[in-house]
Structure formats: structure tokens, C-alpha cells
């Protein structure tokens, strides 16, 4: 099989389930992964034959993709904030909306001219949030926690790969005794699980069947559980003037904001994502 026929093979295989445009996007990603060649080189060398090893890699990839496995898990990486991060089924594939949350925090820190902010990310998954913050603000002290050992290992591997100094720790944030030892922070950020089981019927198969349930679904269908618990934690662990930043379920913007206001947070603000949906909430602790 040549590079050109391999590309066409991926597109025709995936077209029925992904549509032409997405099938072509995925085919480019898979071809880069299999050949290690840039798009330009793949055009120049389109008649070059794949090796036996490359052909079997491609066959395995197409099989996984036809079973709706996300292409990021198939190739083992995903882009976030200009970094190529390792991903696997222990971690959520970082989303573009979450880049907007990082952007908000980075802007606020720059505006406030905080020189060495102490930052905590709760439920870090691949480490996307703390690594992006540390990359933008090298002088920040960044810590991150997760309850999943597999996620923490992936996050640590990503920190090594990106050569960024972030501290990772296994902590169940729903268990107070597990976090009392943590220091005080200027900023606590979290993109916690926020989907209720009943919403799973409306979700894409590639998300529900492959991404970790621990990352997606909130226990007991209690949509605000993590916001309430982290809100309480913030009251003890945020410095005066410190802030809490959350990614939220688009259906609960008003409720999450009201919850934080009820707990005494000030300057509570909801922000929409690029798709126009309520996606982030901030509250200041004074
Ligand atoms: N921060 C990553 C991102 O934005 O791509 C991952 C977010 S994912 C929606 C939620 C994360 O919270 C998962 O990595 C999951 O393992 C973690 N998590 C779930 N329950 C937790 C708990 N009780 N304590 C700490 N982390 C938890
Ligand atoms: N935004 C993700 C999705 O729609 C879920 C992230 C989360 O639960 N925090 O699949």
C-alpha cells in the first residue's frame, strides 16, 4: 500500500461514520502518526510504499476508529495550549473550552500582577490545566491533584515531557482529611466531573464508551457536588483576595454562580465559551 492509497483507505473506511470532512481530518492525523512524515512530505512521497509494520499499525488504527475509539487515544496524544500531551483511557482528552478557562486565569494573574502565585488544579487528568498555566507563567507555583493513579502518572509523564515543574499528588477532594494538609492558594481551579447519568443518552459514543467515567460523571447525579465541596474547601484554602475558577456544565451556569454567592464568594462571574455556552464561573474569596 502506498502513502496515497493508505490515506484514501482511511477516508473511505471512516466516511460512513464520520462524514467526508472529519474522515479526512482523522486520516491526516493517522497518516502522520503511522509515517512520522509531515503533510507536505506525504504529498511529495505519495507513491512510497508503507513498511509491513506501518501497514499493521494502520490496520489496527482503522479497526479502533471504526469501533468509535477517539483518534487521540489511538495515536496516544492530543494538543492543548500548544503542547502535545500524552493521553490514554485513564484521562479525559483535554477540550478546547478548557483552553479558554486557562486563558481567563492567565489574563487575570497578569492583570493583577501577582508575582509568584500559588495555584492548585483539582481533578487534573492529563495535567492539561496546570501545565498550560506553568508554561505561560513560569514564576507560578503550580500544584495539581487527582483521585486516579493512572491520571496522575500520565500528568507526571506530561510534565517531564514538557519540562515543566508542577507537583502532582493523589487526593480525593471529596474527603476532607485528604486535603487539609494542603497550603493556602491564590487560585484554585477545577474542571470536575459534571455530567449526570441521564445526560449520557445525548452524548457521543466515542465519549461515553472510551473516556473515563470517573472523569465525566458526577456521583449520585448530584450535578453541583464538586462545586459545593470545592467551594467549601476554598473558604479554608484560599488566601484573602484569592479566586476559584471552574469549568461548568452549560446547563448549570446560574445554579453554580448562585451556589458560590450563597457561600460568600464575591464578584461571581459566568463566562461563555466559543460556542456561546455558559462554561466557566469565577468567584473571589475575601
Ligand atoms: N483537568 C482535566 C481537563 O480539564 O482536561 C481533566 C478533567 S476531568 C473532567 C475530571 C478529573 O477529575 C478526572 O481526571 C478525574 O479522575 C478527577 N476526579 C474525579 N473525582 C475526583 C475526586 N473525588 N477527587 C479528585 N479528583 C477527582
Ligand atoms: N466537556 C466534557 C464533555 O462534554 C466533559 C468534561 C467534564 O465532565 N468536566 O464531554
UniProtKB/TrEMBL annotation:
One of its GO terms (molecular function) is peptide chain release factor N(5)-glutamine methyltransferase activity. The gene is prmC. Methylates the class 1 translation termination release factors RF1/PrfA and RF2/PrfB on the glutamine residue of the universally conserved GGQ motif. Residues 115-199 form the Methyltransferase small domain. Residues 20-76 form the Release factor glutamine methyltransferase N-terminal domain. Belongs to the protein N5-glutamine methyltransferase family. PrmC subfamily. Keywords: Methyltransferase, S-adenosyl-L-methionine, Transferase. This is Release factor glutamine methyltransferase. Pfam families: MTS (PF05175), PrmC_N (PF17827). HAMAP family: RF_methyltr_PrmC (MF_02126). It comes from the Bacteria. GO terms for biological process: methylation. S-adenosyl-L-methionine binds at residues 123-127, 146, 191. PROSITE patterns: N6_MTASE.
Amino acid at each position: 500500500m502506498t502513502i496515497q492509497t493508505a490515506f484514501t483507505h482511511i477516508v473511505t473506511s471512516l466516511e460512513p461514520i464520520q462524514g467526508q470532512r472529519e474522515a479526512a481530518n482523522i486520516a491526516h492525523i493517522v497518516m502522520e502518526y503511522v509515517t512520522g512524515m509531515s503533510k507536505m512530505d506525504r504529498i511529495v512521497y505519495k507513491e512510497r510504499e508503507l513498511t509491513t509494520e506501518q501497514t499493521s499499525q494502520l490496520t489496527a488504527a482503522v479497526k479502533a476508529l471504526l469501533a468509535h475509539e477517539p483518534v487521540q487515544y489511538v495515536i496516544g496524544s492530543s494538543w492543548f495550549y500548544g503542547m502535545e500531551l500524552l493521553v490514554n483511557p485513564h484521562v479525559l482528552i483535554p477540550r478546547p473550552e478548557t483552553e479558554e478557562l486557562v486563558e481567563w486565569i492567565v489574563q487575570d494573574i497578569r492583570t493583577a500582577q501577582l508575582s509568584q502565585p500559588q495555584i492548585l488544579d483539582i481533578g487534573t487528568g492529563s495535567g492539561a490545566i496546570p501545565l498550560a498555566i506553568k508554561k505561560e507563567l513560569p514564576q507560578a507555583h503550580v500544584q495539581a491533584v487527582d483521585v486516579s493513579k493512572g491520571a496522575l502518572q500520565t500528568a507526571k509523564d506530561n510534565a517531564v515531557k514538557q519540562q515543566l515543574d508542577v507537583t502532582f499528588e493523589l487526593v480525593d477532594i471529596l474527603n476532607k482529611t485528604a486535603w487539609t494538609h494542603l497550603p493556602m492558594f491564590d487560585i484554585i481551579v477545577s474542571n470536575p466531573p459534571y455530567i449526570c447519568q441521564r445526560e449520557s443518552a445525548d452524548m457521543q459514543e466515542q465519549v461515553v464508551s472510551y473516556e473515563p467515567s470517573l472523569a465525566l460523571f458526577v456521583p449520585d447525579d448530584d450535578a453541583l457536588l464538586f462545586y459545593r465541596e470545592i467551594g467549601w474547601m476554598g473558604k479554608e484554602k484560599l488566601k484573602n483576595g484569592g479566586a476559584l475558577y471552574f469549568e461548568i456544565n452549560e446547563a448549570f451556569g446560574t445554579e453554580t454562580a448562585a451556589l458560590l454567592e450563597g457561600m460568600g464568594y464575591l464578584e461571581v462571574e459566568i463566562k461563555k465559551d466559543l460556542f456561546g455556552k455558559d462554561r466557566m464561573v469565577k468567584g473571589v474569596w475575601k
